[in-house]
Amino acid sequence: MIPRYTRPEIGNIWEDENKFSIWLKIEILACEAMHELGIVPAADLKRIKSRAAFSVKRINEIEAKVNHDVIAFLSNVAEHVGPSSRFIHRGLTSSDVLDTALAVQMVQAMDILIVDVKAVRKAAAVKAKKYKLTPMIGRSHGVHAEPITFGLKMALMYDEFGRALKRLEAAREVIRVGQLSGAVGTHAHIDPFVEQYVCKKLGLKPAAISTQILQRDRHAEYMSAVALVGASVDRWATEFRHLQRTEVLEVEEYFGEEQKGSSAMPHKKNPITGEKLCGLARLLRGNLVAALENVALWHERDISHSSVERVILPDSTIALDHMLVGLEKLTHNMLVSPERMKENLNLTHGLIHSQQVLLMLTQKGFTREQAYRMVQRHAMAAWDSRRNLRDLIEADPEIMAKVSAGDLDQVFNLATHFRDVARTFKAVGL
Q: How many CA atoms are closer than 13 Å to the CA of 211, on its beta-carbon side?
């Protein structure tokens, strides 16, 4: 696995230098396999391996004339190799090289994304453990509901990115497939041994069957995983943005000493990282649609998918890498305010305990309808008058005829909401 923070930039994977290096490796490996089959003489193989090289600049010059990237590449390699180049690309078609190399690039990119997701999970785990029992309000429909802990919220993030990790690993396996089957995929001019040999050396599996290309449902599944992980980034960036709203202010993005939030308003500290991550997630979802459109091609092949993939695969993997690194930093450096969380818990004057009161009253003999009506009446009064719900309950003689002060101490206690936290943490692996 590529070490965190020392991995190569993901953009380098999609540069011509890396692409042509993989192309050349495929062609040389194919020659090695054909040598084992007795097709390429030892002297020619030696000459190919010692002389084979390319120049991106020269390939571009040739392509400008021939209007075919693989032919331009092969012509340039032949300039270096000489007469032995007649064995290079023997029995192959362009897509054998293009699709197999693309699979290698997609695996390389995925390896980086997998490392990124692991880093996000680590950052979430640190916050989850630190704030395991830090009370905060849980919200449904954006409205205060019942207490949770900030640790539980971060444990949920940790768990979600566990599924993200599995999706990326599965997508890596789906795309880890190569082909060297010749025109229309029949192996008419190239022995299947060559395909098996080359794919094994590249860390790929040979396709069980192909046409002139690998089928694009694989690429669409890969892009689906990328877009779905991006959606999870979007989900948590949105969560942290909401929690930074002035009226909430339970967490904040880190704000540097020399950072500025607005050209007009010096007081502003905006959730710009989260907003950027949400925007990029939209790009990934749009690119997924393009990948789905690539699945339906004409007969054994056409190249309508090629121009699309030259944009969406680099752009999407680079964008997701940027998003995951950004989310990891946002999470790691996030400023958390337990005091503000406590203040917000008390905003509704005890209404967050209404369900506990309801359940207690049913235990005391009231029907559910009676209990609900009583608690709702006092809850609405508490909200309108800004009085504490417990005070109103204690002033109700019908309720207090069956309820003791000790009963109220128990139901107006936050600890009731947190008794399952330890089990939940264990369930998600924290």
A: 10
Q: Helix axis angle, 368-385 relative to 354-363, nearest 10°?
A: 150
Catalytic residue (choose from 68, 189, 262, 307): 262
pLDDT score for 264 = 78
Strands, E assignment, 221-373: 251-252, 335-336
Mean pLDDT, residues 290-300 taken together: 92
Is pTM beyond 0.85? Reply is yes
Strands annotated E in 269-376: 335-336
Nearest C-alpha neighbor of 26 from the set 48, 42, 1, 56 = 48
Look at residue 262 and tell me whether its pLDDT is greater than 90.
Answer: no
The encoded tokens of residue 41 equal 């003489």
71: buried, middle or exposed (CB in 10 Å: 19+, 13-18, 0-12)? middle
Closest CA to 86 of 45, 33, 37, 29: 45
Q: Which of 141, 263, 267, 299 is catalytic?
A: 141
181 catalytic residue (yes or no): no
Q: Are strands 205-206 and 177-178 parallel, antiparallel or unpaired?
A: parallel
Residue 233 and residue 241 in contact, taking contact as beta carbons nearer than 8 Å: no
Domain 10-87 has CATH 1.10.275.10: yes
* Cβ atoms within 10 Å of 137's Cβ, excluding its own: 21
Residue 32: what residue type? E
Question: What pLDDT, on the 0 to 100 scale, is given for residue 7?
Answer: 53
Domain 351-411 has CATH 3.40.50.2300: no
Relative to beta strand 335-336, strand 251-252 is antiparallel
Strands 143-149 and 135-140: antiparallel
CATH class entry, domain 94-254+267-344? mainly alpha
Average pLDDT of the chain, as a whole number: 94
Which of 192, 21, 27 minimizes the C-alpha distance to 94? 27
Domain boundaries, the chain: 10-87, 94-254+267-344, 351-411
The CA distance from 22 to 217, in Å, is 23
Phi, psi of 7 (to 5 degrees): -70, 155
**Is 262 annotated as catalytic?**
yes
Position 148 pLDDT exceeds 50 = yes
